[in-house]
Amino acid sequence: MLNLEILTPTRTILSEEVDEVSLPTETGQIGILPQHATLVTGIEAGLLQFRTNETWRKIFSFSGVAEVDNNNVQVMILDAENIEDINLDYAKKKLDESLEILNQAKTDRQKKDAEKGVNVARKRLYSLSLLDA
User: Fold this and answer.
1) What is the dihedral angle through the alpha carbons of 108, 111, 115, 118, rounded to the nearest 10 degrees?
2) CA-CA distance, 50 to 34, in Å (whole number)?
3) Cα separations (Å) of 56 from 19, 49, 59, 79, 99?
4) Per the UniProt record, which residue ranges are transmembrane (predicted)?
5) pLDDT in tens, 30-87
6) Alpha-carbon separation of residue 106 from 94, 109, 114, 115, 119 (angstroms)
7) CB of 59 closer than 8 Å to CB of 48
8) Of 94, 22, 95, residue with least CA distance to 59
9) How far apart are CA 65 and CA 55, in angstroms?
10) Beta strands 46-52 and 55-61: pairing type?
11) Residue 17 forms beta bridges with which residues?
């Protein structure tokens, strides 16, 4: 078993034992099983999944960092959304809003921040497409 803890700056999203974790890292999805080697990795916005017995649960995570050590998986992210609470219309609306902010950005900093927002919105839509797969 793995001890999984998912934290944001303002709340603990989850703290329980699970059998397996799949993390959206900067280099792609990575699977974590018991006895995994020690690891520290960046977390990208995307689908964070964890399994207990045969049941997979999923959340949409924002960026952060994860540490794996001695069967403990600690995921520290900026925020998360319950994937079941995200509908297609909401995801499309967030993408449209993000694209509008990008189109109105004037400075390099504003453009960079807006591009991050567009990236998160696109990954949210992509994560929804994986739910039926």
Assistant:
1) 170
2) 13
3) 10, 7, 10, 20, 32
4) none
5) 999 999 999 999 999 999 999 999 999 999 999 999 999 999 999 999 999 988 888 8
6) 20, 8, 10, 12, 18
7) yes
8) 22
9) 25
10) antiparallel
11) 3
**Residue whose entry in the numeric block shows the structure tokens 């998160």:** 120
For residues 80 and 46, is the Cβ–Cβ distance under 8 A?
A: no
**Three-class DSSP category at 124:** helix
Residues 71-94: pLDDT tens digits?
999 999 999 998 888 888 988 999
What distance in Å separates the CA atoms of residue 129 and residue 57, rounded to the nearest whole number?
15
Q: Which amino acid is at 22?
A: S
Read off φ and ψ for residue 60, nearest 5 degrees: -95, 115
Query: Which residue bears the tokens 């992210």?
Result: 77
| Contact (Cβ atoms closer than 8 angstroms) between residue 40 and residue 66 | yes
Spatial separation of the C-alpha atoms in residues 61 and 83, rounded to whole Å: 9
